[in-house]
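Hi,

I'm pasting everything inline rather than attaching a file, because the server keeps stripping attachments. The sequence lines come first, and each chain or strand is labelled.
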Amino acid sequence: MDLERPVPVPDEVSAPFWDACNEGRLIVQSCDPCEWLQYPPAKTCTECDSADNLSWREVSGRGTINGYIVIHDSRLRVWVPVQPYNVAVVELEEDPTINFFSNLPGTAPDEVPVGSKVEVEFISVSDTQKIPEWRVVEG
Amino acid sequence: MVTVQTPPASMYRSREGLGVWEHKGKVAAVGIGHSPTARRWDGLVESSIGTWTVMALRNAMEDAGITPDQVDGMVVVPAATTGDRWYPTHPVPEDFANTFELTDNLNDGLSSMSVDWILKNMPELTNVQFAMHAPTCMSDAVVVAAQAVGDGLTNTCLVLKAWNNLAGRYGHEAGNNALDIAPGASQWTNPWGFGAAASTFAYLFDQYCRKYGKNHDMMAPFVVNEKRNGLLFPEGFWAQHRPEPLSIEDYLSARWVAKPANLFDCDLPIQVVCAYVFTTAERAKDMKQKPAYILNHASDRTRVKSSIQTLDECEAATDSVGRKLYEGAGISASDLSFENMYDGYTLFHQFHIEGLRFAGIQRGEALDLYATDISIEGPNPVSPSGGNAGSGRTRTWMHTDSIQQVQGRAGARQIRRPAEIGVSGGPTTTGGNFTVWSSTPG
Ligand SMILES: [Zn+2]
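And the predicted assembly:
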């Protein structure tokens, strides 16, 4: 896959997440009283609607491929030239209700090993920004 | 000028345990009005959604046998664009501006709609005292109007949804999708290329097939049946413009959009306007059409937790909708004569009807039901409207058909078993609004 991925634009809520990616750490929001992890980050806990107890927690970066789609007709301009491509959904080891998108670089379209364990890696999408991607660690 | 309100959360029945709806059987739909359909707007005043809104509303009032001065309420969906907005990319056409009174929103009548625009351009509506803008689509407007009539906020209420379709592909390389950067919500999707029609539901369908051992080919009888029913809908796009049946082979050989969603799992964006007249059951007795009674309405307000909706979230939400609909209507699944749940994309229809336990199915059994007789002639009519797949994207066919079915005037689509109780609603597996229709007040 050879493309210039759209570069995320950090905002007030997301900046700590993207900064952590640049440091090679995967973090998600946590609301401790709710025992609630959340990603993508939000201004408030989506369980209790309060921002009072939100903090960031580093997570393992391990997960499982839960399933996938193969995009053949993307609406995203920069992705059209690399069609078809995988968009897999990775469930986080600590909390399977948290999921991440992944293109599984190196995996051929429609040959996604569903159920496989994956680990996060951080790839550069610009001179200054890395994003989480995932690679298969076992069959 | 009437003050246009946004429906408060309290108008929606979004929780379980509310008991039988306090207005069960006391509200009815009594009139239907459709505009013609077009694939896209041709730029002419006479086929603008402004002209077609006036036409659909007049058709609905005529159908109900009422005069405009008898209307005292309106629920309108202001969002009316399938793809792009007309203004400010394009100027307001001069002949449009000469034909209609414009509002502060220069898209009104072109790619949006409002109560303000309607009242400015239909001076015959002299007695409108109540007006709301339903935020999402016709399913939203229907439940808001039902509750408003039940609550006595309006006695005779017009309900309207317009869809405009301009040139270009829906969402393709538009807005954030055209950018090299990913701002706002797109920062969580676009860096991984998550952005194609049907993507979320293709993934949920992938999960569904893995959980229950099903496959995409098993969708074919449903999609073929949708098209068949749609071609029996004289108000629909395909019946009017492209009366081509769809075969199993056509479906199975269609190109992928976001595998496992193919071209025919997606609905065709069109231009159309649809309107209804709602009133009290009491008042409905004197009107031209047999009342289509409303037994209940229900809504889902699930918040998806992470990057993409999970099958667990989808099934919990649709199960809850089923329970809420039955609880408030005081009925059970076996009371349904038909179902008209939303289908635009086809790959989530099974989630809705499994949530209803329609025709006795449990989770994971809808595609097996599709292999049986689901036609309008059979014992379990699935989506007799044909939905968006059968008539183009409006999110209204399912309501029009449900009203017509229980009134006994669905024409060639009339189900052969008695049409006593049916459900309609949508749009998707979370966040939708749903209605129970009946031929009797219950
Ligand atoms: Zn919380």
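The CA atoms of residues 77 and 116 of chain A lie 30 Å apart.

If the labels don't parse on your end, tell me and I'll reformat.
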